[in-house]
Amino acid sequence: MAEIKVPEDKSLFDSKRFLQTVTRQPGVYQMFDADGRILYVGKAKNLRNRLASYFRASGLTTKTMALVQRIASIEVTVTRSETEALVLEQSLIKSQHPPYNVMLKDDKGYPYIFISSRDPYPRIALHRGAKRKKGQYFGPYPNAHSVRDSLNFLQKTFRIRSCEDSVFRNRSRPCLQYQIERCTAPCVGYISEEDYQADVRHAEMFLGGKSDSIIRELADEMDAASRALEFEKAARLRDQIGALRQLQADQVAERARGDVDVLGVASQGGASCVHILFIRQGRILGSRSYFPDERLGLSPAELLSAFIPQFYIGSQREVPREILTSEPIEDYEPLQDALREQSGREVSLLHKLRGNRATWVTMAQEAAAQNLTSRTAAQQKLHGRFESLQECLNLEQVPERLECFDISHSAGEATVASCVVFDTGGPVKSDYRRFNIENITPGDDYAAMAQALKRRYTRLASGEGKFPNILLIDGGKGQVRQAVEALAELGVVGVQIIGVAKGTTRKAGFETLHIVSEQRELVLSADSPALHLIQQVRDEAHRFAITGHRQRRDKKRRESPLEGIPGVGPARRRALLRHFGGLREIKRASVEELAGVDGVSRKLAQDIYSALHSH
Question: Residue 512: what pLDDT?
Fold first, then answer.
């Protein structure tokens, strides 16, 4: 690749002189404004022809003309092929976030099904995030709901454990999953390692799309079990075969060619929606809508042409063998080549379709139109609420960003503070934060609030994020005082603090607002759109805090006190639990009784006793 940097002229961009210097080779171009900020990144088969199209006398859309008027310089990178240009373009878009490019807001990683490999009795579970654990990852799935559906089928059919390792290692008797026939209780040795591994292998085959092979193998094992008069085993294998055949019967006829993503697009009033159906083995596994941020007024075909490379190239998403679209894709050949290089196999982009595939595309397109209409209506309603809040607070401008804090704990245990963020488009979930509160008196909500605010606004002051226009505090004057002192200590100005206190009846609609900047209290009518917005933000902060607190509390309670004791590994924990029958009996045991367990020395017994009686 060769790079050409065109000299910058901040006073006026000379497009004629610039175009005389540009090559006709394929490559990528980057447009900058007078302050050197990136505006747009694009790729072209012929750079001179593509860039000349921006500076023609007529035929440009209003939004494209607005982009051109801001151009102060353009940098051009020449590549060896259009496919290489496409890959470089996507890399630059994802690293630089140009405002005029189609931006795909998708902050959450896709979920996978994970089967551990380091354990004699592997665990199956939903996984999201970095793939650091040793084992097999199947997916990605479009959402957690589809993962749970698959896990539910696998547990009923192959009865693989899903419990956390800490729970598995410390069981002394089978849990409820064994009682309802969704686990074979390997924790207490009710199934041999060999038989359990066979079940795991069958689950892996199913997730790999080899249902027919599993059925043949299970049928052979069922016949062998019948001949050996092992009728209970034969019945279990029969049930597994029946479940797999039922699942196959529920799938559509095109199962053999059914690994497909179907994309439909809809545009309305400057907004757009791309809806994707994820089809695997001929079965609709799930769907998802995306609302790309684009500022050039692209047509549906242009939007899909920009969306698809950003969605697949350079991401961890699975690239299916076929991608069906409701609109024709511009320059689809280099895109197919790039997808083939990424996936290591042939990938087809198809538009003109018949039969089931045409039905799928129609479904995706109709879903895109419906979801776009619903979103537009919701945003208009939300914007009206922001305008009402502006009026009620006598603000010069409509507030663009709200933050709200809340505290949750159980009698002082596992205190968690939440921070949620809303803008005129709704919740900004990528900016939500939780804070595990430490080193305070249990139950001291004031200290918890002060700690959370200082941690949050120290980070914002260092440039880690955006300051809100309004900071909502779920609480009365005491909580508000903590916010005022925290922001004053950090030197934060320009953030309006409002306390949201429940009224005397403690019912929704009777809240009292403490407006710090004006030293006054405000009670809005129950039907006020501004109050509805505050309630929505407050309730979301409450939900987010409670969810975090419960997760932290439950995690702490699931951990065995034995796990933190040096020298007490899985084998010794299992030996202790089997010897005494449970954790309560271990706590009651003397040092001498602990030392009587195989593998536990007197010194280790003393360490165990001290650790269990330290509180």
Answer: 85
